[in-house]
Amino acid sequence: MPHLTPLEKAASGALASAFANTLVYPLDLSKTIIQTQVKKRDPSAQAMAMGRSVSTSSEHLWEQSQRGNELKYKSALDVLHKIYKKKGVLGWYHGLLSSIVGTTAQNFSYFYWYTIVRRVFARLTSKNASHKHSTATELFLGALAAAISQLFTMPIGVVTTQQQTDKHRRSLYQLIKEVYVHDGIKGFWKGLNVSLVLCINPSITYGSFERLRQILYNDKQYLGPLESFSIGMLAKSLATIATQPLIVSKAMLQKKHHPAPKDGKAEAAVDEGDEIKFDSFTHALEHLWKTEKFHGLYKGIGPQLLKGVIVQGLLFMFKDQLDMLFLLALKSLQKRRRSLVKA
């Protein structure tokens, strides 16, 4: 069976991604909101401060402060419920367009570079016809493709996260302008360091998928829908569990920043953690560990896993079917060309 070109592979991957992400977008929105909410203060430090102060008024002030340090949302369902009460079902799809554009572009870029990287590597190792990629090789090739892809698609991810966490529902143009005014051109690559580290996520996902394909299905080129779906879910689960703290820190870095009012008024309008701006992903991870421990590092793991495994399972399922449709279309075009030439 003929092989698809890198562009055709990228197109099928991008289309599959768009379908899959549209189906589960509310989960994506809820997990982003959960991951970007942070506590302002370190509870242990507050406890020490309380121990030094024994007056009733001090205790009362501490209790008020502690209540203000509670997270606004308890779970993904809580997020969706509160959004529904305020904005209805349409609120669940806030930022959908930019998210779909972003994921489509990211997956197009990833599959394009992944196909090229694998083909280049295959040519370099073509002397050994029986050679099969090891797990380490698959992971390396996936990480390399993801790193190249990130350099091109990072700005889309930054703007998408900003839109999902923006309380004022600004337009894409306004958000892009604001990012540029505040941080310059480098603001569109905010979180690049952690994104490059996170290249191990798609690397683990696609590397595991290819390895499982080899082990379970003897490296069959095109899997059935259920075969692709099940392997895709398993591969994504492994990747998500391994990289969740980095995913959370990246979301916190790219979150829309709402600074607290300088005059101290209208503090209630600013949610907890909104005035905290993180300089790096290590800063974000350190803050999470101090304020929430393991729960903070793995916050949103439920919707992240659910969304991730469903999207990845559907993506692989759709992609293999789209690949076959592309091949059938190409065969049909080739036959038509031959018939026209003969005529």
From TrEMBL:
Membrane topology: Multi-pass membrane protein
Per-repeat ranges for Solcar: 4-120, 133-215, 223-325
GO molecular function: ADP transmembrane transporter activity
GO biological process assignments: ATP transport; fatty acid beta-oxidation; peroxisome organization
Keywords (A to Z) from UniProt: Membrane, Repeat, Transmembrane, Transmembrane helix, Transport
Transmembrane segments: none
Alphabetical list of InterPro entries matching this protein: MCP_dom_sf, MCP_transmembrane, Mito/Peroxisomal_Carrier
Pfam families linked: Mito_carr
GO cellular component: peroxisomal membrane
Compartments, record wording: Membrane
Coiled coil start-end: none
Recorded family membership: Belongs to the mitochondrial carrier (TC 2.A.29) family.
Protein name: Peroxisomal adenine nucleotide transporter
Organism: Clavispora lusitaniae (strain ATCC 42720) (Yeast)
